[in-house]
Each structure stands twice: as structure tokens, then as C-alpha cells.
Amino acid sequence: MGLNIAGLVITDNFEKNLKKLEDDLRWDIEIIEEITFEDASSNWTPKEEFTLLFTDKATLIFYPHKWITECYSSVKVSSMSYAYSATSMTFIISYRNHEENYGRYIISSEGKTQLVQGNEIPYEKEGMQVDAIILKLIDDLLGEPFDKIDRSVKAYRCKKLNVSTTRLDYIQRLEIEKNRMQLNPNNGESGHTTNLFHTIENLELDDREEVLCPRCLGKGYIDAEDIERLNRKRAWEAGLCAYCMGKQKVSIKQSQILKANNGFLSSNLIPTVREKLVDGDKELLKTAQKVNELLENYLENYNVDSLIQYVDTLEKYEVPDE
Questions:
Q1: Can you give the pLDDT at residue 205?
Q2: What is the pLDDT of residue 203?
Q3: Within this chain, do residues 114 and 219 fall inside the same structural domain, yes or no?
Q4: Smallest Cα–Cα separation from 221: which of 116, 123, 109?
């Protein structure tokens, strides 16, 4: 039958503190019972449950294969969600490299790559297949070989509780809806949506709180669907999300002062410029608006002069090519 596991590997053990893990994943976790790692890592994790192991350096979670569609990841450190099924010959990677600010999503089935998004993982350049990459990345993120972990070590059988909608979740939903309506004005605003806008403008927010990135919707990278949704065909390519720089979340403040499709916010911005921009520097916000208008004019009217001005202006604020 072979190996049939799915899960999440995080390169941090959160001091083996369950609350810190919950905060990072934004999960509410109930421990059902203690088990051994051998049981925790067995094939086909039962539905609606997951198993958990804190190692000396990392966190290892095994969950049902269907959970891979959620692309769970750590907010703070490198991590990988994966599905490995030797039975169906299907292998999926959702990898987030926090240190180098890039993400990668791969689906492979029966030896054929079905979908690839984001920046290439170094192991791909070596010609390694997706199933082998998964096992290699598990070892890398754990900081030790997976197959060398003591099979008798203590692990936990757990349940992810249904989390009630928090104030932050509500804010996040409002922000995404607000962004959607701003980018698609022809859709019209229902009275319901107008009320949502009014609500968010009157909430007392801590602008340091974070919401899912409105550009990539929390993936850490943009794909063809994002580019179409944001009306940036002919301007952007799939890859690292420059709005959140692959971190998947942004501050509420950033999501309020910069539209998700703003063309000024590129991945090559000089770090100090980016920092001042997302912090609300008035002059830079004016520049961002001007640059975005140039891009809009090019995309809507095929105005080449606008494109040239857009590129020339943006280059002044970007890290020069080596």
C-alpha cells in the first residue's frame, strides 16, 4: 500500500506550548489522548482529527488528506502542508519559505505535474520528483530525518474545534468584501455591502492586527485567478505575492490604505520604501496612487506612454538589478 500521509510541518516547536501553536495557526485545539509517534504517523489519519508531535526543533502534524485544500501554514516561520499518497500516486506541496520570502504550490498525479505556482524549490532544479521533494522538505523543516524519530515518543491525538467568528475574522471578511467591490464597481453595491463598509469604518481597530492578504487571499503567492480577479493581465505574472511578500497576512492598516491591485507595491521595492509606504507615508501614498493610475491607463487604453512612465517611475523606488 505504501505511504499515505498528509499534514503540516513547521520549523518551530513553539516551546512545546499548545497555546502558542494555536495562536500561530489560529486554531482552537482539543487534545483527545496521548499516543505514540508510531500511531500518530500511521496511514490515513481519521476524519475530523489530527495528530500532533512537538520535536526538539519543530512541530509535526498529521491530518486527513482533504485538509490539504486549506493550505495551512505558519504565520511566523517556514512550513509545508503536504499530501503524500502512494496508493493514488498523488502528491501535493504547499510550501512557504519564510526566511527567503517565497511560496510554492505543486500538484502531481501519476507522474504528471498538474499544477505549479510560485517560486521554484531548489530541489526541483536537481530534477527531484515531487514525492521525493516532500520527504526531503519534511526532513529539512524538522531539522532531523523523519525516519530517525523514536517511534515510541509521546504524541497527541487531537481535534480542531469549530472556532466561533471572532472580531478579527469579521474584520477580515469585511476587508475582502470591501476590496472585491472596489475592484469590481460594475457589480454594484447592495445595501448589505454598504452597511458592511459603514461598519468597518466605525470599528475601533488596532491597526497592528492582521488579516488575510487581500491580493493573494492568504496563499503567499498570486496565480492566474488572482491576476484576473485583480484586473492585472499583461502586467503581472504568477509568483510571490508582493503585497504580503509571501507572509499570507498583512496589517489591517495596510489593507485599508493600499488597494490589493496597487501596481506600485512590487516585490522589488527598496525595503525602507516599502516600510514607509505600508506605514502610511503621505508622499509615498500619493506616488503609489500616481503610479497605479499610469498602470491602469496602460491596461485599459493600451497607452504605451503610460507604460513607459510607469516603469520609469517604479524603477526609482526599486532595488536595482545586479
A1: 43
A2: 38
A3: no
A4: 116
